[in-house]
Structures are given as C-alpha cells and as structure tokens.
C-alpha cells in the first residue's frame, strides 16, 4: 500500500489549526474562452441587458430567481462567422461563492462549463454584496488564493445544485435574449 | 526566482488546475506535465473519464446503466464493463460488511427526498436488497427481484480512480482529482490532506500526509436537513433504515478511491462492525466527532489493528522518520 500506516497519519492531527477561508482561482474568463473555442478569432464582449419581460421569462422558464438584469456575454467569431457564445455567471450557496463560464453554440446547446473562481467563507460574507464586490475585477489579475498551502480538502460533498440552476437560467437567457 | 522555486519548476514542469460540475458535485482536477499543452490535454482526458462514468452511473439520467437496471424489474441485461466493475466491488463490500453497505436503499433515500422518484419504473419488491443482484459472466447483471439501485455511495470514488488513471496514462508527472471530497493523488511529494470540522465546515483540519493513494470523507454537514421536524441525511444505517445525523466526519484511506468512498458509508453506519471490514480491505479510517465543549471541540479516533484508538489532542509533532 502506498499510503502511510495510521500511526503516521494521526500525529498530523496534533497540529490542529483552523485555516482561514479557502479560495481558489481555476482560470480567467479569457482562458475559459480559449478552452471552449480554441479555433475562434475574436471574443467580443456584448453584455445582455434584460427587459423586465425578459427577466420574468427567464425566471419562469428556469424556475430560479434572476438577481441581475445585466449578464456578461461574449460573442464568439471564427473565420468571420458567428459560432457561439460564452456567458459568465456567478452563484452562491450558504458557504460558497462561485463564478463560472458557460459555452453555448448557436442553437443554445451547452458546449462546456468551467469553474473560474471558487471561494468559501464562514457563511455570513457570501450574501453580502460588498464582500462579493471586492473580488470583481480580480480575475484578470493575480490569482486570488487566501491560503496557498491548502490544496487538498477531503470534505463531504458540496452539491453542484446552484450551478445546475445557474446553467438553466443561462439557457433561458439565451432563449429570450441571444436567439 | 529562489532556489526552492526553481527546483519546484524543474521537477513539476507546467501545472494546471481546473474544475467542472460533474457527479452532482464540483470535480477539481489538477496536474503537472512536460508542457502546458501536455497537461491541458491530460486534464481534458481525465474530465472525459469522469463524464463517461457519470453518464453510465447517474441515478437521475434515464439513459444510464443504473436507470436501465432500475427500469428492468426482475430480469437479466448486459451493462458496461465499468458499471459491472463497480457492481462487483459493491457486492464484495456488501458481503464482507453483511449488508452495511447496500446499493439498494433507494426507497429510503427517495422517502427522505434525496433522490427523485422515477415515474413509470417498476416498484421495487418489498425486502429486495443487494442479495438480489447477481453478477454473471460477460458483464451480465441479473436482478432476481425488481429493485432500485443507486451507486451514489461508490461511483464518485470509481470516477476519481478512472480520472487518476487517465492523468497517468496521458503522461502527467503528478496529479490530483477531488470529486467533492473523494480525493486521489500521485506525485513526487507527499501532500497534506485537510478535512472539514464536522460542526464548522469552513474550518479545515489537517488529516494526514499522502503521496500516492486515495482518501474519501463522508459527513452530513452539507446534506442533513429537517424533514417533518426530524433531522435526516443521505447517510443511511442499512440495518435500521435510519439516517445518520451525528456531527461526525469519517475519512478512509485505501488503495482505491472507490474502496475509500464506499468504506466511509460502512464506518458511518456502524463504527464497531466496520473495524473488521477495514482490516479485510487493508484500509484505515479516521473519525472526527464534534463535541459541545469549547476546547477541544472535536474528538479524533483512528482505526488501528481492529480497534479504535483515541488520538490525544496535545501530542507533540512527530518528526518525519
């Protein structure tokens, strides 16, 4: 067996320290765009601003609340032809705040989902808009990682339910605003 | 660049870390390789491996092998070799644990709202359990009674193993796959594994050092909830049919992540009976219990030669041998 016997495992627990909130940046939106559409020539920012009617449509079709009316969207061009969309979105749960990107083809089919940033907190901060705002713009700069030492968390499952709901919302947004 | 940083770059080459929503959780895959392109493509292949296991073993997807079996009722059908392999391990675990691990507890999970009810599927027979799943040659599976199975307690670990294999086969120098707490890794340096405090999941505690191997952790801190005034969780004691809702976390170290993942459920259901099961499979477990006291507010036990050994909290750090 490759892992150490248990008497080597246990002493690590003696040095118990509570770590600060965990955060990791996986990729920037630009890296995600290239990942989704490696042959594309340009990604043009063309944010969607939803009318009240469109917002109502999205909420009804996706069955989730739309917290914003503006959504960052990039139009993907390859060989002079429009080939798809990249949409950036964010979701938060009780302990986590996640930004991610979704690639859509022109028919509105999901071509990929990549997590951009993942942040964990002690719970209170996540629902606070000011706390979230401090991270805006960060993803183009240096990686934001609050603790470089913690890379391996064997923790119980955190559900991806919020992301599934977010992707449903983006598909509804495509239906009403990008077709 | 410092000497240490230069060494790190030389030995680890180019590193990447990515995450995608898969298996109902976030799957993080990272690794290092000879070039950015090489490691990027290795990670792509590892995600593909996870996605194919997801497609075969999802309870929710009506086209998965699991749904095909659940829809079949009593009868025989062929499944994908991957599915067959997981069913084979599930059977070995059920046999050795005398049913503490059981993939047929779907009705209980549906009852507590953790799995949806599929309309149009034949009702599971009363009393149907893992013993009514027979594994035949050529990846044939026979259900001697209609039953509903769910591989949620083992397939994430198997997907992690497949992703680790994909990274290795694609030539990654080091790699790590973390499927919502089911963690496999390989590389040149041991790494510290952290777990969450069972009562404060954003607090991280160092658990062990691991260089090549697998560790899985189960706890109900994210999933337990009130249903009709009663606390429930998707971790079910198969003997009693009751959910385990203790403020407890169970981590298992084993040769494969599939084994580690499944064994956490056995330890959760019955820590005492689990000891013999752990010994049988050559695995180790660590239980962290949250305590109401202020300090220390947790208690740690590790399995050792058929016993649970209390880990004192005031041990001095042991130097690495």
Description of the structure:
The complex is a heterodimer of chains A (179) and B (321). Chain A is an alpha+beta fold and 179 residues long. Chain A has helices at residues 6-9, 29-36, 52-62, 129-133, 161-178, and strands spanning 23-25, 42-45, 48-49, 70-71, 73-78, 81-92, 96-105, 110-120, 152-153. Chain A has one domain (27-145, 157-178). In chain A, 26% of the residues lie in helices and 29% in strands. In chain A, strands 1-8-7-6-5-2 form a six-stranded antiparallel sheet, sandwiched between helices. Chain A is globular and about 45 Å long. The longest helix of chain B is centred in the first third of the chain and has 22 residues, at 36-57. Chain B has 321 residues and is of the alpha+beta class. In chain B, the strands form five sheets. Chain B has a nine-stranded antiparallel sheet with strand order 1-2-6-7-10-15-16-17-18, covered by helices on one side. A three-stranded antiparallel sheet of chain B has the order 3-5-4, covered by helices on one side. In chain B, α2 packs antiparallel against α6. Among the domains of chain B are: 60-143, Orthogonal Bundle (T-fold); 190-321, Roll (T-fold). Residues 1-10 and 314-321 of chain B have low confidence and may be disordered. Chain B starts with a helix and ends in an 11-residue tail after the last strand. Classes of the chains: A alpha+beta (179), B alpha+beta (321). The interface between A and B is large, with 51 and 72 residues.
Indicate the structural class of chain A: alpha+beta
- CA-based gyration radius of chain B: 20 Å
Strand order of the largest sheet of chain A: 1-8-7-6-5-2
As a percent range, the share of helical residues of chain B equals: 25-40%
